[in-house]
Structures are given as structure tokens and as C-alpha cells.
Amino acid sequence: NDRLRDVAEDRDFEIGAAVAAQPLRTDPAYKKILRNEFNYVTAENALKMGPLRPDPGVYDFNDADAVVDYARAHDQSVRAHTLVWHNQTPEWFQEWDYTPEQLEEFTREHVHTAAGRYRDTVDTWDVVNEAVADDGTMRENLWYETFGEEYLDDAFRWANEVAPDTDLYYNDYGADGVNVKSDAIYDLVERMLDRGVPIDGVGLQMHALHEKPGIDSVAENIRRFKDLGLDVEITEMDVAYLPGDDPGDQEARWEKQAEFYRDITEVCLDEGVDTMIVWGVRDSDSWIPNWFENLTGDPLLFDSGNDPKPAYDAIKDTLANY
Ligand code: G3I
User: Fold this and answer.
1) Strand ranges (DSSP E) for 167-223?
2) What is the enclosing helix (H) or strand (E) of 80?
3) Which residues line the pocket of ligand 1, CB cutoff 6 A?
């Protein structure tokens, strides 16, 4: 068998991709790669608060359902992203002049409705995303300013009330290795565990862009979260280079990129992490060119012509020969 997902399944490994609803409706080549090569799916945007809540009191589950239904139809697990995040909230919500009671009620209702709807079809939720700032302080978002850090506890408890069998994760970027931010996340989730919060795991996003974490440091970081009794997943991986690190020609860059994907796959296998998700299917689907002009724009496993890249082979070989 030659497909990435088969090689992964032989190792009880989940190899995932972030997907968009639009190409699921219109792009046969995209769908073919997705169903053949991946056994785990996450919605890149469709399950975020902004897309789900176009108007006060209104939910639009069309895109989210399209992603979840496609995954279930193709025997793929689903990671849902995300219930509480300062980014991509609805515009009307950003302008809303709420009281603390109204914000609490709004958030509880959102978590109950979204997590409840997918209680039987989603395996994992990113309950709270990116609550810690890069310097290790708590991010000053509206929930933190209104309720303090216990807003995380509430979100996890509300999710657990309606989806007791779903794994509940805290997810963040720039905290892949041991550093000031992952130290702060470690302390945060330890306090949550002390308070009896139903948290199951920590997602390391692994956007390896401006800086790449050292591999030993990633291993050490994974171990300490696991020592707390938490699961770890690699949740949003992509690999790009600044001009100074870019070998310059595509062949050399793709080899270097493949090495990094290989190293992270190996760390996962070494440390008992059984899930790795890449943040998009083909290079042409990646968010990076829209956000960073100075980074190389080919961070994923498939090129823009639907062909697998060296990074794809690197992951497959590692899983097959570990
Ligand atoms: O489809 C909409 C359209 O309806 C809208 O009117 C138009 C104008 O804004 O743009 C389109 O929405 C864009 C959306 O991507 C879909 O392409 C949003 O503007 C744009 O902000 C959004 O960017 C997403 C970004 O999160 C938002 O912060 C990226 O696709 C998505 O890849 C990225 O994902 C995040 C994770 O959720 C969390 N971790 C970091 C990661 C990368 O930033």
C-alpha cells in the first residue's frame, strides 16, 4: 500500500490536514488528495466563532458541516478548531457593548451549541486557542480582561458538559520547544489541572516559519506535558524560510524542508505523540503567502500541481521504517 494514511494507520498514527470548505465543494483534485492521503481532518476556518456566527443569534453551520461530513464519510477523525479565541470573532461581536454577565452567557451558549452539535462526530476540540502571549504573560483578550484566567476553566467545563467523550485541548503557536512561552503554558495547564479542569491535551501548532525549534527541545517539551498526564498533538504544521535561511533553489529548499518534517515525525514516534496535522493540503492552499511576503510560500506536503513533495516521502518513509 502506497498511501500516506495507510502507512500511518499501520502505526496507529493520525496524519491530518487543515481543510477549507470551498475546495471540498469545487475541487476534485483537492478532495482526492484529502481522502486518499490523510486520516485526520481539521477545519482551517469553518468552526471558528466568526464564520459560525454571522449575526447575533444566528449560527451558520454549512461550511463546518461540509468539513465534518466529508471527513466522516471517508473514515477520517476530526479535530475541531476552535471555541474560544481572540481572533476571527464576528464583527458584530467586536462592536457589542456587553456586560460581564452577557459575555459569560454568550460564551457558554456558544460552547454548548457548537461542542454539543458535534459531540458524536468530532474527536477533539481546541477549546481555547492562543491564550498566552509570546512573552509568557496571559494574552490581554476580552475574556481575560473580564474574567481573569479562569475563563479557560469555564470554557473547558462547558465543553465537557455537552461533549464528555471529546478530547479537550489547549492549543498554541511558538511553544513547540522549551521556551518562555511554553514554560508559561506548562504552568497554566498545571494550574488548570490543580483546579480540576477537564483538559486532555496540549496542541503544539508547529508553524516552523521565522524560527524553527530545536528537535531535542521539542522532545523535552512534549515529555514534560506528558508527565502532567496530558496528551500532545502536532496541530498546525508548516515549514517556510526567510531569505537568509532559504537555500535558494526549490530542490534544495524542499530537501531541507523534508528533513524538518522527518525530524518532527521521528520525535512524535519517539515520544508517543500519535497525531500530526499539516496546515493545508497543497502549497497553493496555504495561508502563508497571504500573510508573509518575506517567507517562502511552499510550506506543505503537496505542490500546487497536486504532486507529493520530498516532505511527503520523508514522513511516509519515517512512518514505514521506524
Ligand atoms: O472567506 C472570507 C471571506 O468571506 C471574507 O469576507 C474575506 C474578508 O476578510 O476573507 C475570507 O476570510 C479569510 C479567511 O482566512 C479565509 O480565507 C480571513 O479574512 C482571514 O483572516 C483568514 O485567515 C485565517 C487566519 O487563521 C485568521 O487568523 C487563515 O486562513 C488560517 O489559516 C489561520 O489559521 C490560524 C489558526 O486558526 C490558529 N493558529 C495560527 C493559524 C495561522 O495564522
Assistant:
1) 167-172, 201-204, 207-208
2) strand 77-84
3) 44-45, 87-88, 129, 173, 205, 236, 287
- For residue 84 the three cell numbers come to 474560544
Contact 223, 274 (CB under 8 A): no
CA distances from 133 to 147, 194, 230 (A): 17, 22, 21
What does the buried/exposed string (b/e) look like for 126-153 if buried means 16 or more CB atoms within 10 Å of the residue's CB?
A: bbbbbbbbeebebeebbbbeebeeebbb
Q: How far apart are CA 125 and CA 49, in angstroms?
A: 13
Residues 161-208 pLDDT 10s: 999 999 999 999 999 999 999 999 999 999 999 999 999 999 999 999
Residue that has been written with the C-alpha cell 464528555 in this structure: 164
Closest by Cα among 240, 235, 147, 225 to 193: 225
Residues 312, 302 contacting (CB under 8 angstroms) = yes
Q: What is the DSSP letter of 245?
A: T
130 labelled catalytic: yes
Predicted complex ipTM: 0.95
Q: Within 13 Å and on the Cβ side, how many CA atoms surround 199?
A: 32
Domain extent for 85: 4-321
* pLDDT digits 0-9 by tens, 110-157: 999 999 999 999 999 999 999 999 999 999 999 999 999 999 999 999
CB 169 within 8 A of CB 112: no
pTM: 0.98
Q: Which of 24, 26, 42, 44 to mutate to test the pocket of ligand 1 (most atoms within 8 A of CB)?
A: 44
Number of domains composing the chain: 1
CA gap 245, 74 in Å, rounded: 38
Peptide bond into 42 cis (omega under 30): no
Nine-digit cell string for 166:
471529546
Domain containing residue 209: CATH number: 3.20.20.80
Given 14, 37, 44, 130, which residue is catalytic? 130
Q: Tell me, in angstroms, the distance from the centre of ligand 1 to residue 240's CA.
A: 18
Nearest to 42 by CA among 203, 219, 250: 203
